[in-house]
Predict the 3D structure of the following.
Amino acid sequence: MTSGDRSAFLREFLRAPFTVGAVAPSGVPLADLVTAPVPRDGGPLVVELGPGTGAFTAIIQRRLAGRGHHLAIEVNERFAERLASRYPRVEVAVADARALAETLAERGHHQADVIVSGLPWAAFTADRQGDLISAVTDALAPHGAFTTFAYAHTRPAGCGSR
């Protein structure tokens, strides 16, 4: 993680705190845990939701080592542009994660083997959380894995489900 990543994250958080949901990118220990289900063999389709500046992206790319397909879905256009230029092997889609099925279909995919989420769950309303979970479960292959995490700092804002 570079100081530019930290600056970009803080800037985007200040613009839209309930979309970005964090003041800094995730660290390597968290990224290692969240990306653990990405297989080190085969040709999986890995979907990354809310990649931000790429804290999880780097580790997913390392685990894939040129195999499979990595689709990153980011709603923030500035993050998406930064991610696409930094990781040319990653297909970056500017889209809302709730439209996961449509985003996959547009790219010729039906289901993902692994879905890794960096979305700010605690910043979302209960309805939005439900929509996202439905989108993930509909897009996940029967043998697939879904990982995520949540920050608790936004709970006082009253948006997260309790």
User: Anything to note?
Assistant: The two ends are 32 Å apart (CA to CA).
